[in-house]
Amino acid sequence: MEKKLGIIQTQSIVFNEPVKLECGKSLPGVTVAYEAYGALDKERGNAILVAHAFSGDAHAAGFHQGEDKPGWWDDLIGPGKALDTDKYFVICSNVIGGCKGSTGPSSINPVTGKPYGLDFPSVTIGDMVNVQKKLIDRLGIKKLLAVIGGSMGGMQVLQWAVDHPQMLKSAIPIATALKHSPQQIAFDEVGRQAVMADPDWRGGNYYDSGQPAKGLSVARMLGHITYMSDKSMEEKFSRKLKDDKYAFNFTAPDFEVEGYLRYRGDSFVKRFDANSYLYITKAMDYFELLPQDFLREDIKIDTRFLVIAFKSDWLYPAYQSQEIAKLLKIKGADATYCEINSTYGHDAFLLEVEEETRLIKHFLEKTYKTV
Amino acid sequence: MPLEDFNPTTDSTGSTDSTIKIMNYKSAPLDYKIIYDIVEPESRVLDLGCGSGALMQLLVEGKHAKAQGIEIDEEQIYQCVEKGLSVFHGDIDSGLSEYPDKCFDYVILNQSMQQARKASFIISEALRVGKKVIVGFPNFVHLTARIQMALKGRTPITPSLPYRWYNTPNLHFLSINDFKDFCKEEGIHIDSSYYLGKRMAILFFPNLFAFNAVFVISRSRKN
Question: Sign of dihedral through CA atoms A129, A134, A138, A140?
Answer without folding.
Answer: positive
